Amino acid sequence: MEQNLENPYLLLTPGPLSTSRTVRAAMGRDWCTWDKDYNTDVVQSIRKQLVELSTIDVDNYTAVLMQGSGTFAVEATIGTAVGMHGCVLILVNGAYGDRMAKIAKQAGLSHVVYDFGELNPVDPSQVHRMLEADARITHVAMVHGETTTGMLNPLALVAQVVKAQGRKFIVDAMSTFGGIPMDVSALNIDFLVSSANKCIQGVPGFGFVIAKRVELEACKDFSPSLSLDLYAQWAEMEPTGKWRFTSPTHVVRAFQQALLELREEGGIQARYARYSENHRILAEGMQRLGFQLLLPSAMRSVMITSFLYPADAHFDFARFYQALKARGFVIYPGKIGAHETFRIGTIGDVHPQDFTRLVQMIGEVQRLGYC
Ligand SMILES: *Cc1c(COP(=O)(O)O)cnc(C)c1O
Predict the structure, then answer these.
(1) Which residue of 36, 95, 138, 235 has the smallest Cβ count within 10 Å?
(2) Is the minimum distance from the CB of 172 to ligand 1 under 6 angstroms?
């Protein structure tokens, strides 16, 4: 059978994202999981590169890979870090913060939730007040880029408060790690969670956690879950690169290729510059066409952008979506309470010229009466 490695459209979604042909081609062979070709040359190499991408303080941080989508890695981290003795303050301003609260509740963990509302960034002074007032709280968990709206939360400011109050910091940086320069050690992050199919531009199948080594080492037997025990996964993987249960070999090999392509692009700084340019072309072009953005520029990430439905009562998202898909672009519905929105992602193997063309196509479907 003829192998077709071409994509019929670009995925301008929160993930999975468009990947390069070469990343997809890296999945073309099988691997044995019990010897060096895979465990040392692929898994250990990836873990080392992830730590190097996340900090200059490489000796004090370690990386763990976890099967499943990003949520599995978030659940493994919260369960294992907080365990049955801790209490986690969960900062919410969208669906992914909310999901962390559901994870804590389902696992029976002691937790406190503060909801800032979907249209407000996390407020560091409120976090400060809550930590001062409640000595039970041992951990704080926050989403960096809230994919629900495209909001970028003030990571460095919240990190400062959490550190000054002597609490542990868990960050869902799913949609930002690899796409925005940051140093987990400088930010004093204890656990940072992301996944293969976001800004590193791999294919979906596993998540990863960058953990402060001493903090993870202290979490033996804390996890309420067997398979999502982040400590046990790390303890198995650390010496040999072996996964505890079946490893998603093809996905892992594709991720290694994606890391190589990140380096070839010029690293995280260069990728951030490309995503920023994608976002700029999209935001300016859509505003020229008369669309309104949900968030002001100071709150926006360059990862995904929410647009309000046009005021025209005839707007039909499904028709608009199909018209764009037929022209090579898949966009995404909105997910917030207060306003009708749709979202367009700017991460993945997508480039400024794609967004110039997208804006032209949206102008065309607008003239045809689809929006
Ligand atoms: C994509 C994403 C996740 C993980 O979602 P999965 O569907 O489980 O991969 C978690 N948090 C944020 C902010 C995300 O963007």
Answers:
(1) 36
(2) yes
